[in-house]
Protein: DNA damage-inducible protein 1
Organism: Populus deltoides
Amino acid sequence: MRITVMTVGEQIISLEVDPHESVENVKALLEVETQVPLQQQQLLYNGREMKNNDKLSALGVKDEDLVMMVSNSAAISAPSNNLGLNPDGSAVNPGAFQQHLRSDSNTMAQLFQADPELAQAVLGNDLNKLQELLRQRHRQRSELRRQQEEEFALLEADPFDVEAQKKIEAAIRQKGIDENWAAALEYNPEAFARVIMLYVDMEVNGVPLKAFVDSGAQSTIISKSCAERCGLLRLLDQRYKGIAHGVGQSEILGRIHVAPIKIGNIFYPCSFMVLDAPNMEFLFGLDMLRKHQCIIDLKENVLRMGGGEVSVPFLQEKDIPSRFLDEERYSKEASSSGNPVTSGTTVKKNDPPAGGQSSGVARGGATQGPDFEAKVAKLVELGFGREAVIQALRLFDGNEEQAAGFLFGG
Protein backbone atom coordinates (compact mmCIF):
# COMPACT_ATOMS: atom_id res chain seq x y z
CA MET A 1 0.00 0.00 0.00
CA ARG A 2 1.03 3.64 -0.38
CA ILE A 3 1.14 6.14 2.51
CA THR A 4 1.94 9.85 2.50
CA VAL A 5 4.25 11.34 5.11
CA MET A 6 4.26 15.10 5.80
CA THR A 7 7.27 16.53 7.63
CA VAL A 8 7.45 19.70 9.71
CA GLY A 9 9.39 21.28 6.84
CA GLU A 10 6.29 20.80 4.62
CA GLN A 11 8.05 18.05 2.68
CA ILE A 12 5.62 15.52 1.23
CA ILE A 13 6.98 11.99 0.93
CA SER A 14 5.13 9.10 -0.66
CA LEU A 15 6.18 5.59 0.47
CA GLU A 16 5.22 2.16 -0.85
CA VAL A 17 5.11 -0.11 2.22
CA ASP A 18 3.70 -3.46 3.28
CA PRO A 19 0.62 -3.26 5.56
CA HIS A 20 2.42 -5.47 8.07
CA GLU A 21 5.61 -3.35 8.05
CA SER A 22 6.87 -2.16 11.42
CA VAL A 23 7.01 1.54 12.26
CA GLU A 24 10.76 1.24 12.83
CA ASN A 25 11.31 0.13 9.23
CA VAL A 26 9.19 3.02 7.98
CA LYS A 27 11.38 5.41 9.97
CA ALA A 28 14.45 3.85 8.37
CA LEU A 29 13.02 4.61 4.91
CA LEU A 30 12.27 8.18 6.02
CA GLU A 31 15.83 8.61 7.29
CA VAL A 32 17.08 8.03 3.76
CA GLU A 33 14.55 10.49 2.32
CA THR A 34 14.82 13.29 4.89
CA GLN A 35 18.29 12.87 6.45
CA VAL A 36 16.58 12.96 9.86
CA PRO A 37 18.07 10.24 12.12
CA LEU A 38 15.68 7.45 13.01
CA GLN A 39 16.12 8.17 16.73
CA GLN A 40 14.90 11.76 16.29
CA GLN A 41 11.79 10.85 14.31
CA GLN A 42 8.34 10.81 15.85
CA LEU A 43 5.49 9.54 13.67
CA LEU A 44 1.87 10.49 14.39
CA TYR A 45 -1.24 8.85 12.98
CA ASN A 46 -4.56 10.53 13.80
CA GLY A 47 -2.75 12.45 16.55
CA ARG A 48 -1.43 9.27 18.23
CA GLU A 49 2.26 8.44 18.42
CA MET A 50 3.34 5.32 16.50
CA LYS A 51 5.71 3.11 18.50
CA ASN A 52 8.68 1.46 16.76
CA ASN A 53 7.45 -2.11 17.40
CA ASP A 54 3.89 -1.42 16.17
CA LYS A 55 2.71 -2.77 12.83
CA LEU A 56 1.00 -0.42 10.40
CA SER A 57 -2.02 -2.71 10.04
CA ALA A 58 -2.39 -2.97 13.82
CA LEU A 59 -2.53 0.83 14.05
CA GLY A 60 -5.27 0.99 11.39
CA VAL A 61 -3.09 2.62 8.74
CA LYS A 62 -4.69 2.12 5.31
CA ASP A 63 -3.80 2.84 1.71
CA GLU A 64 -3.43 6.59 0.91
CA ASP A 65 -3.47 7.55 4.63
CA LEU A 66 -1.51 10.55 5.92
CA VAL A 67 1.20 10.24 8.59
CA MET A 68 2.84 13.24 10.28
CA MET A 69 6.55 13.21 11.05
CA VAL A 70 7.95 15.55 13.70
CA SER A 71 11.36 15.76 15.30
CA ASN A 72 12.18 15.18 18.94
CA SER A 73 14.90 17.86 18.74
CA ALA A 74 14.30 21.58 19.13
CA ALA A 75 15.09 22.10 15.48
CA ILE A 76 14.88 19.62 12.65
CA SER A 77 18.22 18.16 11.68
CA ALA A 78 19.16 18.81 8.08
CA PRO A 79 22.26 18.65 5.91
CA SER A 80 23.11 22.02 7.39
CA ASN A 81 22.03 23.85 10.53
CA ASN A 82 21.07 26.73 8.24
CA LEU A 83 18.27 24.56 6.85
CA GLY A 84 16.67 23.88 10.23
CA LEU A 85 13.42 25.24 11.62
CA ASN A 86 12.83 27.19 14.80
CA PRO A 87 10.33 25.99 17.41
CA ASP A 88 7.72 28.39 15.97
CA GLY A 89 8.06 26.77 12.54
CA SER A 90 10.04 29.57 10.86
CA ALA A 91 13.34 28.87 9.11
CA VAL A 92 16.61 29.45 10.98
CA ASN A 93 18.12 30.84 7.79
CA PRO A 94 15.20 31.64 5.43
CA GLY A 95 17.49 32.44 2.49
CA ALA A 96 19.34 29.11 2.69
CA PHE A 97 16.10 27.25 3.35
CA GLN A 98 14.53 28.84 0.27
CA GLN A 99 17.49 28.02 -1.97
CA HIS A 100 17.57 24.43 -0.71
CA LEU A 101 13.90 23.91 -1.63
CA ARG A 102 14.32 25.60 -5.01
CA SER A 103 17.21 23.28 -5.90
CA ASP A 104 15.10 20.14 -5.29
CA SER A 105 12.70 19.80 -8.23
CA ASN A 106 10.91 16.78 -6.73
CA THR A 107 10.21 18.59 -3.48
CA MET A 108 8.94 21.66 -5.35
CA ALA A 109 6.63 19.51 -7.49
CA GLN A 110 5.17 17.88 -4.36
CA LEU A 111 4.88 21.27 -2.65
CA PHE A 112 2.96 22.74 -5.60
CA GLN A 113 0.45 19.89 -5.30
CA ALA A 114 0.13 19.97 -1.52
CA ASP A 115 0.45 23.72 -0.79
CA PRO A 116 0.55 26.02 -3.87
CA GLU A 117 0.60 29.18 -1.72
CA LEU A 118 3.75 28.10 0.13
CA ALA A 119 5.34 26.97 -3.15
CA GLN A 120 4.76 30.43 -4.64
CA ALA A 121 6.34 32.01 -1.56
CA VAL A 122 9.40 29.76 -1.95
CA LEU A 123 9.75 30.90 -5.57
CA GLY A 124 9.14 34.55 -4.68
CA ASN A 125 11.49 37.17 -3.29
CA ASP A 126 9.65 38.06 -0.07
CA LEU A 127 11.39 36.18 2.77
CA ASN A 128 9.12 37.77 5.38
CA LYS A 129 6.08 36.29 3.65
CA LEU A 130 7.79 32.90 3.50
CA GLN A 131 8.57 33.03 7.23
CA GLU A 132 4.99 34.03 8.06
CA LEU A 133 3.59 31.16 5.97
CA LEU A 134 5.94 28.70 7.70
CA ARG A 135 4.75 29.93 11.10
CA GLN A 136 1.13 29.73 9.95
CA ARG A 137 1.56 26.14 8.75
CA HIS A 138 3.20 25.27 12.06
CA ARG A 139 0.22 26.71 13.95
CA GLN A 140 -2.17 24.78 11.71
CA ARG A 141 -0.32 21.52 12.34
CA SER A 142 -0.26 22.19 16.07
CA GLU A 143 -3.99 22.88 16.07
CA LEU A 144 -4.64 19.73 14.06
CA ARG A 145 -2.61 17.65 16.49
CA ARG A 146 -4.44 19.23 19.42
CA GLN A 147 -7.83 18.42 17.89
CA GLN A 148 -6.77 14.88 17.15
CA GLU A 149 -5.53 14.42 20.70
CA GLU A 150 -8.82 15.77 22.05
CA GLU A 151 -10.80 13.40 19.84
CA PHE A 152 -8.70 10.46 20.99
CA ALA A 153 -9.13 11.50 24.64
CA LEU A 154 -12.90 11.64 24.15
CA LEU A 155 -12.93 8.13 22.74
CA GLU A 156 -11.26 6.87 25.93
CA ALA A 157 -13.37 9.02 28.26
CA ASP A 158 -15.67 7.56 30.89
CA PRO A 159 -19.05 6.98 29.16
CA PHE A 160 -20.82 7.97 32.39
CA ASP A 161 -19.01 11.31 32.66
CA VAL A 162 -21.59 14.01 31.88
CA GLU A 163 -19.01 16.64 30.88
CA ALA A 164 -17.26 14.17 28.58
CA GLN A 165 -20.58 13.29 26.94
CA LYS A 166 -21.29 16.98 26.36
CA LYS A 167 -17.92 17.35 24.65
CA ILE A 168 -18.57 14.28 22.52
CA GLU A 169 -21.97 15.67 21.55
CA ALA A 170 -20.38 19.02 20.61
CA ALA A 171 -17.67 17.23 18.59
CA ILE A 172 -20.28 15.19 16.70
CA ARG A 173 -22.31 18.32 15.99
CA GLN A 174 -19.22 20.18 14.77
CA LYS A 175 -18.26 17.25 12.57
CA GLY A 176 -21.70 17.39 10.96
CA ILE A 177 -21.29 21.13 10.38
CA ASP A 178 -17.85 20.62 8.84
CA GLU A 179 -19.17 17.88 6.55
CA ASN A 180 -22.08 20.09 5.50
CA TRP A 181 -19.65 22.94 4.78
CA ALA A 182 -17.38 20.66 2.73
CA ALA A 183 -20.38 19.39 0.74
CA ALA A 184 -21.47 22.97 0.06
CA LEU A 185 -17.99 23.86 -1.17
CA GLU A 186 -18.12 20.94 -3.60
CA TYR A 187 -21.72 21.04 -4.81
CA ASN A 188 -22.83 24.62 -4.16
CA PRO A 189 -19.71 26.85 -4.22
CA GLU A 190 -21.63 29.87 -5.54
CA ALA A 191 -23.36 30.11 -2.13
CA PHE A 192 -20.09 31.50 -0.71
CA ALA A 193 -19.83 34.26 -3.32
CA ARG A 194 -21.18 37.75 -2.80
CA VAL A 195 -24.61 38.30 -4.36
CA ILE A 196 -24.73 41.38 -6.57
CA MET A 197 -28.02 43.25 -6.41
CA LEU A 198 -30.06 43.96 -9.53
CA TYR A 199 -29.33 47.25 -11.32
CA VAL A 200 -30.40 48.44 -14.78
CA ASP A 201 -29.58 51.45 -16.92
CA MET A 202 -32.45 53.88 -17.37
CA GLU A 203 -33.09 57.58 -17.89
CA VAL A 204 -35.22 59.72 -15.60
CA ASN A 205 -36.39 62.91 -17.30
CA GLY A 206 -33.52 62.50 -19.77
CA VAL A 207 -30.80 61.99 -17.14
CA PRO A 208 -29.06 58.57 -17.29
CA LEU A 209 -28.61 56.70 -13.99
CA LYS A 210 -28.26 53.24 -12.47
CA ALA A 211 -31.56 52.08 -11.00
CA PHE A 212 -31.78 49.51 -8.24
CA VAL A 213 -34.59 47.03 -8.97
CA ASP A 214 -36.20 45.88 -5.71
CA SER A 215 -39.48 43.96 -5.76
CA GLY A 216 -39.42 43.91 -1.96
CA ALA A 217 -39.81 47.70 -1.68
CA GLN A 218 -43.38 49.01 -1.60
CA SER A 219 -42.74 52.25 -3.48
CA THR A 220 -40.44 53.62 -6.13
CA ILE A 221 -38.00 55.99 -4.46
CA ILE A 222 -35.74 58.76 -5.68
CA SER A 223 -33.30 60.63 -3.50
CA LYS A 224 -33.55 64.38 -3.12
CA SER A 225 -30.15 64.95 -4.74
CA CYS A 226 -31.02 62.69 -7.68
CA ALA A 227 -34.41 64.40 -8.16
CA GLU A 228 -32.63 67.75 -8.21
CA ARG A 229 -30.12 66.48 -10.76
CA CYS A 230 -32.97 65.21 -12.93
CA GLY A 231 -34.78 68.57 -12.74
CA LEU A 232 -37.77 67.11 -10.89
CA LEU A 233 -37.52 68.81 -7.51
CA ARG A 234 -39.73 71.63 -8.74
CA LEU A 235 -42.57 69.08 -9.00
CA LEU A 236 -42.25 67.90 -5.41
CA ASP A 237 -45.63 67.71 -3.69
CA GLN A 238 -44.87 68.27 -0.03
CA ARG A 239 -48.42 67.32 1.02
CA TYR A 240 -47.17 63.72 0.91
CA LYS A 241 -44.63 64.10 3.67
CA GLY A 242 -44.28 61.18 6.04
CA ILE A 243 -42.00 58.49 7.39
CA ALA A 244 -40.61 55.48 5.50
CA HIS A 245 -39.90 52.40 7.59
CA GLY A 246 -37.30 49.81 6.60
CA VAL A 247 -33.89 49.49 8.24
CA GLY A 248 -34.66 52.22 10.73
CA GLN A 249 -36.70 55.05 9.24
CA SER A 250 -36.25 58.06 7.01
CA GLU A 251 -38.23 61.17 6.23
CA ILE A 252 -40.38 61.29 3.11
CA LEU A 253 -39.96 64.79 1.68
CA GLY A 254 -42.92 64.44 -0.66
CA ARG A 255 -44.06 62.87 -3.91
CA ILE A 256 -43.49 63.51 -7.61
CA HIS A 257 -46.72 62.33 -9.21
CA VAL A 258 -45.56 61.68 -12.76
CA ALA A 259 -42.31 61.93 -14.72
CA PRO A 260 -40.98 60.11 -17.78
CA ILE A 261 -38.48 57.27 -17.40
CA LYS A 262 -36.81 55.70 -20.41
CA ILE A 263 -36.06 51.99 -20.32
CA GLY A 264 -34.59 50.62 -23.51
CA ASN A 265 -36.13 52.72 -26.29
CA ILE A 266 -39.54 53.26 -24.68
CA PHE A 267 -40.76 55.94 -22.29
CA TYR A 268 -42.95 55.04 -19.32
CA PRO A 269 -44.77 57.31 -16.85
CA CYS A 270 -43.56 56.86 -13.31
CA SER A 271 -44.25 58.36 -9.89
CA PHE A 272 -41.74 58.57 -7.03
CA MET A 273 -41.49 59.07 -3.34
CA VAL A 274 -38.71 61.58 -2.63
CA LEU A 275 -36.55 60.64 0.35
CA ASP A 276 -33.55 62.20 1.98
CA ALA A 277 -31.63 58.94 1.46
CA PRO A 278 -28.11 59.49 0.08
CA ASN A 279 -27.29 55.75 -0.03
CA MET A 280 -29.57 54.98 -2.97
CA GLU A 281 -30.18 57.36 -5.86
CA PHE A 282 -33.11 55.59 -7.47
CA LEU A 283 -35.03 52.49 -6.45
CA PHE A 284 -37.49 50.92 -8.86
CA GLY A 285 -40.06 49.47 -6.46
CA LEU A 286 -42.99 47.09 -6.57
CA ASP A 287 -45.58 49.77 -7.39
CA MET A 288 -44.01 50.56 -10.78
CA LEU A 289 -43.01 46.94 -11.39
CA ARG A 290 -46.68 46.02 -11.10
CA LYS A 291 -47.95 49.00 -13.08
CA HIS A 292 -45.71 48.27 -16.06
CA GLN A 293 -46.07 44.44 -15.83
CA CYS A 294 -42.36 43.88 -15.32
CA ILE A 295 -40.75 40.45 -15.30
CA ILE A 296 -37.49 39.85 -13.43
CA ASP A 297 -35.97 37.14 -15.62
CA LEU A 298 -33.00 35.72 -13.71
CA LYS A 299 -32.45 32.94 -16.24
CA GLU A 300 -31.74 35.43 -19.03
CA ASN A 301 -30.54 38.06 -16.51
CA VAL A 302 -32.82 40.77 -17.90
CA LEU A 303 -35.69 43.00 -16.77
CA ARG A 304 -38.67 42.76 -19.11
CA MET A 305 -41.05 45.72 -19.28
CA GLY A 306 -44.64 45.68 -20.46
CA GLY A 307 -44.85 41.91 -20.35
CA GLY A 308 -41.81 41.57 -22.60
CA GLU A 309 -41.99 44.45 -25.10
CA VAL A 310 -38.66 45.76 -23.83
CA SER A 311 -35.80 43.80 -22.26
CA VAL A 312 -32.81 45.45 -20.59
CA PRO A 313 -29.92 43.47 -19.08
CA PHE A 314 -29.06 43.65 -15.42
CA LEU A 315 -25.69 45.31 -14.95
CA GLN A 316 -22.54 43.32 -14.26
CA GLU A 317 -20.50 44.11 -11.18
CA LYS A 318 -17.93 46.09 -13.16
CA ASP A 319 -20.66 48.41 -14.46
CA ILE A 320 -22.12 49.25 -11.04
CA PRO A 321 -20.62 52.27 -9.22
CA SER A 322 -18.32 51.14 -6.44
CA ARG A 323 -20.21 53.19 -3.85
CA PHE A 324 -23.26 50.96 -4.45
CA LEU A 325 -21.17 47.83 -3.84
CA ASP A 326 -19.49 49.00 -0.64
CA GLU A 327 -21.62 46.79 1.60
CA GLU A 328 -19.91 47.64 4.87
CA ARG A 329 -20.28 51.36 4.30
CA TYR A 330 -23.83 50.93 3.11
CA SER A 331 -24.87 48.93 6.18
CA LYS A 332 -23.31 51.48 8.51
CA GLU A 333 -25.07 54.37 6.80
CA ALA A 334 -28.32 52.43 6.74
CA SER A 335 -28.24 51.87 10.49
CA SER A 336 -27.25 55.45 11.26
CA SER A 337 -29.50 57.32 8.83
CA GLY A 338 -32.44 54.94 8.91
CA ASN A 339 -32.15 54.05 5.24
CA PRO A 340 -35.55 52.73 4.11
CA VAL A 341 -34.59 51.54 0.66
CA THR A 342 -33.93 47.95 1.62
CA SER A 343 -36.27 45.07 1.04
CA GLY A 344 -39.51 45.32 2.96
CA THR A 345 -39.82 49.12 2.89
CA THR A 346 -43.21 50.41 4.03
CA VAL A 347 -44.50 53.95 3.97
CA LYS A 348 -46.51 55.84 6.55
CA LYS A 349 -47.68 59.22 5.32
CA ASN A 350 -48.53 62.24 7.42
CA ASP A 351 -51.37 63.45 5.22
CA PRO A 352 -52.11 67.18 5.47
CA PRO A 353 -55.60 68.62 5.40
CA ALA A 354 -56.91 69.48 1.94
CA GLY A 355 -60.00 71.22 0.59
CA GLY A 356 -60.59 73.10 3.83
CA GLN A 357 -61.05 69.93 5.88
CA SER A 358 -59.94 69.89 9.47
CA SER A 359 -56.78 67.96 10.26
CA GLY A 360 -58.47 66.59 13.35
CA VAL A 361 -61.07 64.46 11.53
CA ALA A 362 -61.33 61.03 13.12
CA ARG A 363 -60.62 58.02 10.91
CA GLY A 364 -64.01 56.48 11.54
CA GLY A 365 -65.92 59.64 10.61
CA ALA A 366 -63.87 60.17 7.44
CA THR A 367 -64.55 56.69 6.07
CA GLN A 368 -68.32 56.39 6.52
CA GLY A 369 -71.53 58.33 5.99
CA PRO A 370 -73.09 60.15 2.99
CA ASP A 371 -70.00 62.26 2.30
CA PHE A 372 -67.83 59.18 2.10
CA GLU A 373 -70.26 57.45 -0.30
CA ALA A 374 -70.32 60.56 -2.47
CA LYS A 375 -66.53 60.50 -2.73
CA VAL A 376 -66.62 56.80 -3.60
CA ALA A 377 -69.16 57.38 -6.35
CA LYS A 378 -67.16 60.29 -7.76
CA LEU A 379 -63.94 58.25 -7.98
CA VAL A 380 -65.74 55.19 -9.37
CA GLU A 381 -66.98 57.42 -12.23
CA LEU A 382 -63.32 57.98 -13.14
CA GLY A 383 -62.99 54.26 -13.95
CA PHE A 384 -61.60 52.80 -10.74
CA GLY A 385 -63.03 49.73 -9.01
CA ARG A 386 -65.20 50.35 -5.96
CA GLU A 387 -63.06 48.22 -3.61
CA ALA A 388 -59.87 49.97 -4.74
CA VAL A 389 -61.52 53.38 -4.21
CA ILE A 390 -62.71 52.47 -0.71
CA GLN A 391 -59.25 51.21 0.26
CA ALA A 392 -57.59 54.36 -1.09
CA LEU A 393 -60.01 56.66 0.77
CA ARG A 394 -59.51 54.71 3.99
CA LEU A 395 -55.76 54.89 3.53
CA PHE A 396 -55.91 58.70 3.28
CA ASP A 397 -58.59 59.24 5.95
CA GLY A 398 -61.21 60.19 3.38
CA ASN A 399 -59.03 62.75 1.56
CA GLU A 400 -60.44 62.60 -1.95
CA GLU A 401 -57.58 64.38 -3.74
CA GLN A 402 -54.87 62.24 -2.20
CA ALA A 403 -56.83 59.05 -2.84
CA ALA A 404 -57.21 60.05 -6.49
CA GLY A 405 -53.49 60.75 -6.74
CA PHE A 406 -52.76 57.38 -5.23
CA LEU A 407 -55.08 55.58 -7.65
CA PHE A 408 -53.69 57.40 -10.68
CA GLY A 409 -50.12 56.77 -9.51
CA GLY A 410 -50.74 53.03 -8.85
Notes: The first strand starts at residue 2 and ends at 7.
